[in-house]
């Protein structure tokens, strides 16, 4: 079960100018794959901030994903930030140069085009089967673009790299307030310490209700906990 950190990069996210579609997509897909997403951090287009966030996540988790800031413009500083955080240099990658030349159909790259071939030292290209474009990886860091359509396509190509043991989920809806059932929920948590028990209150037609979620990587534990909870609530 890989632990994962996500670093979302872009001033446009911090200012609300652009709606962040990538975080909801990645959190959902990682959950479905059975990966354990432990942290989501949003940082601006600043080399030092990106380096700090990525280095911290790389040390704390098995895998790291970054989104945004990999284009050719002045504010695309993700690669420089990662290099700074890992304390390595940016270097031109010949393999990437060949791909960029083929993409633009040129024999010689312009300075702007060449920027996209300079990556943190130690980077590699992962070629998913049947996919046109490779995935850039350095250490345990997977570097994705910020454009949602491109990110989704790239992520699905390497989704198996993040596969773990999926969680089993059961839900239970009650007409109640959380204070009415808090002690019973504590009993469930004490009895099933590996269970993830969520409690989410909401109002519907002026009536307070609670949705409970029971999650575990063991289906048997979920069913046992659900049975225990149901009987306790009936009592």
Mean pLDDT: 95
Helix percent reads 40-55%
Strand order across the largest sheet: 2-1-3-8-7-6
Report the C-alpha radius of gyration, rounded: 22 Å
Total domain units: 2
User: Which range does the strand content fall in?
Assistant: 25-35%
Distance between the termini: 37 Å
Describe this structure in words.
It is a single chain. With 235 residues, the protein is an alpha/beta fold. The chain has two domains: 3-162, Molybdenum Cofactor Biosythetic Enzyme, Chain A (3-Layer(aba) Sandwich), CATH 3.40.980.10; 168-234, Ribosomal protein S10 (Alpha-Beta Plaits, 2-Layer Sandwich). The chain has nine helices and eleven strands. The longest helix has 16 residues, at 219-234. The radius of gyration is 22 Å and the shape is elongated. The relative contact order is 0.13. The model has no long low-confidence stretch (mean pLDDT 95).
